[in-house]
Design a protein that fits this description.
The mean pLDDT is 92. Helix content is 50%, strand content 11%. The protein has 10 helices and 5 strands; from the N terminus they run αβαβααβαβααβααα. α5 links the parallel β3 and β4. The chain is an alpha/beta fold.
Length: 228
């Protein structure tokens, strides 16, 4: 199979959401992406982080506001010993996001992706720090998490009012599955096999790729150009 990210409906929806956040002055520029495991969130983040030059960090179960700010500083080019004061870290982050180093040239907004953002809600000060960075820089902050993150955010009125892009990943539909088969497989996968794989995997993109890979290996082992 070929390596690559297929621009399925979920991918295109998230791409449009980021573009909308970057190209508006009238509304808040924060978003949330959620969905169950296997719907392609992490792969999509990698693709679109490159496209939009996003700052991409991942929260952990042990994350604190200091560690999150330290990760952002590191992603933005800070070297050497980590700063100890949170205010100094926020100042560094905001300067790097808004002005070109060594000049006074104003930079266009860059998205900030926070993967596994469910963990941020264990430490509310992390959300306060991200909101401060957004308020100062106007760089879109996009939280990425599991199915419950949208409900958790809606329960926090002071944070929910800033979210203007609510993007749910639902997995592949039949058309998406056919697109993945066409773009990634190096043997022909007829419609009946696409339908079977889609049905058996329930549209989970990780399982779809595993199924297609097995079909392709079977075809190669048996010198077939197509497997129905």
């Amino acid at each position: 199979m070929k390596y690559g990210t297929v621009k399925t409906k979920d991918v295109r929806k998230f791409d449009q959401g980021i573009d909308d956040l970057l190209n508006t002055d009238e509304i808040e520029r924060m978003g949330v992406l959620w969905g169950p495991p296997g719907t392609g969130k992490t792969t999509t983040l990698t693709l679109l982080a490159n496209k939009y030059d996003a700052v991409f960090i991942r929260a952990l179960g042990c994350s604190t506001v200091t560690s999150i700010l330290g990760d952002l500083c590191q992603m933005l080019g800070h070297v050497g010993k980590r700063m100890q004061r949170r205010t100094d870290m926020i100042d560094f982050i905001c300067r790097r996001l808004t002005t070109e180093e060594g000049t006074n040239r104003v930079l266009p907004p860059r998205p900030i992706f926070v993967d596994e953002a469910d963990y941020c809600f264990q430490e509310p000060k992390i959300l306060d720090a991200l909101r401060d960075i957004y308020d100062i820089t106007k760089c879109p902050v996009i939280l990425i998490g599991m199915e419950d993150i949208a409900r958790t955010i809606r329960e926090s009125s002071k944070f929910a009012r800033r979210i203007t892009q609510w993007i749910e990943f639902k997995g592949l539909d039949l058309e998406d599955t056919g697109q993945v088969a066409t773009e990634l497989c190096e043997v022909h996968i007829p419609l009946d096999m696409v339908e079977y794989i889609h049905r058996e995997t329930a549209g989970n993109i990780g399982r779809v790729k595993i199924g297609l890979d097995k079909v392709e290996k079977y075809a190669r082992a048996n010198r077939l150009d197509s497997v129905s």
